[in-house]
Amino acid sequence: MKKIAIFISGAGSNAQRMISYFAGHQKIKVACLISSKENVQISTMCKKHHVRYHEYGWNEQDKEHILDVLKANGIDWIVLAGFLKKIPESMIRAYSNKIINLHPSLLPKYGGKGMYGMHVHRAVIEGKEKESGITIHYVNEEYDKGKIIQQFKTPIQVSDDANSLSEKIRKLETNHFTQTVENEILNPSIRHSD
To answer: Residue 192: what pLDDT?
Structure first.
């Protein structure tokens, strides 16, 4: 059984879908969820599904403690589902090629520090792009520069604005994120020694 930890910073809609999807799964279990801010709705859902829930402000002390929590829970993989904090190098080393992130653009375009949520969608619209999408990728030491696992695209109409593009991107996340994570954990595209 592969155990995953989900990291969130927002409402956690992708995390909720993932917890529901993997409940009762034969090979993958969401063992803990780490939120960078208070989230009563997610904490209630975690309780219902026997997922350990933790909140951290993400200071230096927290980062070290989180690594201990992950090890204590036997975590094999980390999934970043709308997590806005930079992952420390110690965690990237401990979970080399085992941290998966979801980014709301077609990387390498519109990635990097400060590029998240509506900031990305506004930049894509201002850039007069013909398409956008989501990128599911591994995390390394640089923002949004890890190996791409998969991308899913959506066309941009002339009538689209940042809000309507955001809805299209959310739909792609709903349709593809959890299944892509499942496929990658069960059949990693990067060789692992374990």
So the answer is: 60
Query: Would the pTM count as exceeding 0.85?
Result: yes
**3-class DSSP state for residue 67?**
helix
Range of the domain at 22: 1-96
Catalytic residues: 103
Residue 112: inside a domain, yes or no?
no
- Asked whether residue 86 is domain-assigned, the answer is yes
Closest CA to 32 of 70, 85, 87: 70
Amino acid at 95: Y
Residue tagged 């899913």 (tokens): 152
Question: What is the number of domains present in the chain?
Answer: 1
If we measure between CA atoms, which residue out of 31, 14, 36, 62 comes closest to residue 170? Answer: 14
DSSP per-residue string spanning 120-165: HHHHHHHTT-SEEEEEEEE--SSTT-SPEEEEEEEE--TT--HHHH
- Residue 182, token pair as written in the block: 């499942």
At 19 the pLDDT is 97
